[in-house]
């Protein structure tokens, strides 16, 4: 099992070889993006986002690092999108800002979702709609698309044929044998590719550490039906805005129990409209109404479907929990969280649950009812796939470190040689040459932060400052200095925000500032910049020693 990180500079790709570079999705759940290079052409599979955690304040989403391909965007023949979840398509608008005419290849629903998203970014994409069973050349790559079952309709795996070998990328998948849309994972196609000879298989790792087989989606029906049968007042369902199957079950239950439904949240309204228009969501006549129409109905006849299942601060459910949404949640209401917890979001989600509970609502979630099943293959399904495909080399993708390792162990357990199973990281360079995949180097794959309208300007250093501001506060020191002597003309003023201090305040810091200024010597050392640095360092050290805190210290120096 090859886990060693090589030189940061990969060698040139040998003629006829295939290079595989995951720029995201290895070591995290999100920002999935893999670049394939052959014969001078680049093919990208997925371009998603990662949602920020609590230690990344002010960040909206996190993108893959495009720097490795930025000066070769003219060589990108297409972006293949395996399905329509944000962690696979959310980064597309930001990449197309740099080259808008890159063709987007995907299934009908996926193209519908990404086209609507790009419309909001004022980008008109070049799209190529494909379906399972299609085979299409894209530059130097001969691409075949296979149906896979996931928690969103129309998921695809993609097989890439080049003279260097056959690669199978599963995308996100599971092996639900009773899917609501009757579209099962094409295991016959997987087996057929196995007979042809798969040289490298990139495999979804998200549930690799979960034994057995993933529960079928239709098994959620009884739990959802129970909620609709027993809820005394309004039902508020929160789900991913792309979770069409789950929302279909909610609509069916609402219709059965005589409730009307309204969608809440821009992305939910947009995506469900697209899904219904394309025939992926079946809505009985008169079931879905405008939000305002619900005011005229008894509470026991109302169902709301909204976003916010991950505790996102700006999503509808989070605002309801905080009491800042137009919809007031109260006693007798039932809130159904119909999605899993994305790792890193646990605290935010439980904060929302606590807020809703405090308002008197009954909250039904994965922890107390069977209202969610995963969209990813568990260990038993992955082993089954390895046994029917028998790939020569395996690269686990889409998962945190523990998921990648568990997936690698599963591959080895089926008889694949340990040195043919690669545990890689974002930015790793894998070359497939002569039927063997090896790690040959790495390229930059840093987190790229989106903050409002800015992309890439937020750094790890600025995030650290934000964390300090949030945890320790800020102290502003206003000092009046004689420009001739370089000394204080009067005691400094200390202004604080978010920093607790006693009545004596900063009396002890003034002598420290005087000493720091007196130690500066020569005209160059007495520049304003140098004086500000000296004061900031002195005050920071004094606060850390005396008050055991480390706030951000800002110095405002004024010539007296």
From TrEMBL:
Keywords: Cytoplasm, Endonuclease, Exonuclease, Hydrolase, Nuclease, RNA-binding, rRNA processing. Residues 30-224 form the Metallo-beta-lactamase domain. Substrate binds at residues 372-376. The keyword Ubl conjugation does not apply. Its main location: cytoplasm. Its EC number is 3.1.-.-. Pfam families: Lactamase_B, RMMBL, RNase_J_b_CASP, RNase_J_C. Coiled coil: none annotated. It is found in: Cytoplasm. An RNase that has 5'-3' exonuclease and possibly endonuclease activity. Involved in maturation of rRNA and in some organisms also mRNA maturation and/or decay. Homodimer, may be a subunit of the RNA degradosome. This is Ribonuclease J. It comes from Pseudonocardia abyssalis.
């Amino acid at each position: 099992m090859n886990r060693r990180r090589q030189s940061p500079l990969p060698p040139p790709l040998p003629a006829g070889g295939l290079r595989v570079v995951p720029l995201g999705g290895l070591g995290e759940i999100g920002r999935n993006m893999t670049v394939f290079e052959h014969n001078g052409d680049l093919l990208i599979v997925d371009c998603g986002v990662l949602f920020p955690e609590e230690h990344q304040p002010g960040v909206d989403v996190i993108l893959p690092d495009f720097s490795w391909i930025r000066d070769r965007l003219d060589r990108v023949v297409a972006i293949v999108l395996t399905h329509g979840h944000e962690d696979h398509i959310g980064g597309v608008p930001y990449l197309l800002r740099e080259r808008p005419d890159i063709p987007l290849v995907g299934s009908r629903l996926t193209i519908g979702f990404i086209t609507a998203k790009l419309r909001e970014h004022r980008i008109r994409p070049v799209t190529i709609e494909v379906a399972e069973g299609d085979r299409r050349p894209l530059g130097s790559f001969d691409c075949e698309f296979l149906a896979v079952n996931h928690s969103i309709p129309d998921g695809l795996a993609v097989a890439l044929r080049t003279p260097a070998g056959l690669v199978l990328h599963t995308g996100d998948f599971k092996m639900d044998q009773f899917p609501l849309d009757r579209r099962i994972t094409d295991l016959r196609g997987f087996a057929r590719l196995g007979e042809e000879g798969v040289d490298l298989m990139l495999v979804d790792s998200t549930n690799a550490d979960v034994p057995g087989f993933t529960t079928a989606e239709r098994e959620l029906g009884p739990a959802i039906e129970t909620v609709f049968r027993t809820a005394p007042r309004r039902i508020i369902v929160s789900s991913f805005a792309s979770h069409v199957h789950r929302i279909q079950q909610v609509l069916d239950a609402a219709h059965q129990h005589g409730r009307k439904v309204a969608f809440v949240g821009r992305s939910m309204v947009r995506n469900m409209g697209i899904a219904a228009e394309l025939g992926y969501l079946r809505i009985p006549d008169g079931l879905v109404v405008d939000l305002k129409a619900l005011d005229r109905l008894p509470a026991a006849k109302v169902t709301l479907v909204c976003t916010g299942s991950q505790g996102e601060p700006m999503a509808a459910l989070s605002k309801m929990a905080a009491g800042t949404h137009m919809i007031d949640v109260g006693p007798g209401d039932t809130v159904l969280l119909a999605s899993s917890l994305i790792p890193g979001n646990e605290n935010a989600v439980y904060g929302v649950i606590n807020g809703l509970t405090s308002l008197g609502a009954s909250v039904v979630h994965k922890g107390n009812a069977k209202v969610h099943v995963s969209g990813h293959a568990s260990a038993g399904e992955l082993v089954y796939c390895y046994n029917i495909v028998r790939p020569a080399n395996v690269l686990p993708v889409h998962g945190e470190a523990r998921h990648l390792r568990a997936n690698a162990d599963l591959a080895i357990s089926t008889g694949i040689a340990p040195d043919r199973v690669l545990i890689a990281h974002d930015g790793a360079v894998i070359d497939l040459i002569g039927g063997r995949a090896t790690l040959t180097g790495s390229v930059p794959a840093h987190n790229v932060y989106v903050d409002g309208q800015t992309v890439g300007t937020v750094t790890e250093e600025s995030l650290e400052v934000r964390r300090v501001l949030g945890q320790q506060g800020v102290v502003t020191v206003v000092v009046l200095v004689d420009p001739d002597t370089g000394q204080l003309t009067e005691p400094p003023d200390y202004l604080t925000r978010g920093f607790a201090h006693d009545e004596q305040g900063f009396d002890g810091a003034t002598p420290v500032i005087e000493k720091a200024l007196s130690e500066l010597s020569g005209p160059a050392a007495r520049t304003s910049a140098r004086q500000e640095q000296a004061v900031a360092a002195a005050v920071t050290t004094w606060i850390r020693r005396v008050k055991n805190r480390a706030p951000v210290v800002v110095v405002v120096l004024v010539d007296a």
